[in-house]
Every structure is written in C-alpha cells, then in structure tokens.
Amino acid sequence: MPLLELNNLSVNYGAVQAVRDISLTVEAGEIVTLIGANGAGKTTTLRAISRMMKPRSGTLSFDGHDLLAVSADVVVRYGVAHSPEGRQVLARQSVADNLELGAFIRRDSAQIQADIRRMYERFPRLGERRGQLAGTLSGGEQQMLAIARALMSRPKLLLLDEPSLGLAPIIVLEIFGIIKELNAQGVTILLVEQNARLAMQSSHRTYVMEAGQITFSGPSAELANDERVLHAYLGG
Fold first, then answer.
1. Which member of 54, 86, 114, 214 has the greatest number of CB atoms within 10 A?
2. For 53-84, what is each residue's pLDDT tens digit?
3. In this structure, are residues 164 and 193 in contact, taking their beta carbons and an 8 Å threshold?
4. By the 8 A CB rule, do 62 and 79 touch?
5. At what angle do helices 139-151 and 109-122 cross, to 10 degrees?
6. Helices (H), 18-131
C-alpha cells in the first residue's frame, strides 16, 4: 500500500476548478516531484493533502487514514508536515520559537528540546541565530527554518512547496543537498519545485501537471529524457 494515495481528486479555488481528477501515489522512502507551469495546480494539490483546502471530490489517504475525514491538525498528528511556498516563517518570533511551534502536536518536552538541538546541528546557521527574529534571516536561512520547523513534528511525509524560490543558485544547491540527506535518513518527500531539472535529478519519480491535470508521469530519470518534458520544462 502506498504511504500517500490520491484518487480522482478535484479541488476548487473559489469558482475555478484548480485540480481536476488527479491520481498519484507516494511510496515510503521516495522523493516524488510534481512539476508544471505556474497555475498548474501544484500548490493546490499540496494544500489539499495537508487539509488547508477542502477537496470537492475524490479520495485522499495517508498511511491507511482517510485524510478527507479529519482536520489539518490531525493530518499533522498522522505524520504529514507541510513546508509552504514562500516559507511563511513567523517573522516576529525567534528561530527557537519557530522550531518550538513546529512541535505543537507533541507533549514530550525533553525530546522536543533534544530535537531542537539536532536541528541546530543539521542547520548550523540556525543554531548561530537561534535568538534572532525569523523575519531578519536571509531567504536561504528562512527556507532552512521552514524545513526544520516542519521536521519538528517528526513527520513520515514532508510536503515541500517551491523550496528554491527566490534563492541564489549556490543556496539552492545547498537546500537540495539537505533534501537528499533527509530522504537518505528515512523521510519521504513530495516536492513541488520550479527548477524542474534539479527536482528530477533529485527525485525517484515525477508527475507533470498542466491546467489542473496530471498529463504524464514516470521515473524521473526517464522523464528527464522525454521529448515532451525536454521542450516544455527543461529547455531542450
């Protein structure tokens, strides 16, 4: 059974049908990437999975649980964490406060503090700036904080929405190095990413969305050589 499974999922954004009858799966241990042009429905798909948006129809299951039957906080308790587009750190709170808030579902205070220390080891710049207001961090540091905050819930599945957005190329490579390292340590990842080439190089499988629908999918290494993908997304 897949860890995450969407079947014929449709989502409206007001009067607009943003996602149309999509089906996708994510197996435990994978990095799966979702690529497509702006407005294709990628962010809406992630927001539906984390229950920040209510699907109109279809089914959505995670680790044997029906996600359509529960609220967003329960989705986190089941093991899904969402690092949103634009990072959305709490700008007027410190780095340390952001991390503690990422563990809002937990009650194991000693382990929460141990995990915060581990985040500082994994992201040394956050450790150096633990008392600094999150809004004063650089874009790359805010992205690291957004990922670290999501990890504080100890997720089985991490949803990453445009982690490279607005970052310098050298920082993008650093962020993707972190993504691959997290996956090697056992975190399953569903990645929405504008840098299609880098996303496909870093993932096991790829789904391509166009106008709210999945048009084709397959192993990332194969789709990276597909003429349709080359011309539409990779500049080939």
1. 214
2. 999 999 999 999 999 999 999 999 999 999 99
3. yes
4. yes
5. 150
6. 42-49, 72-78, 95-102, 109-122, 124-128
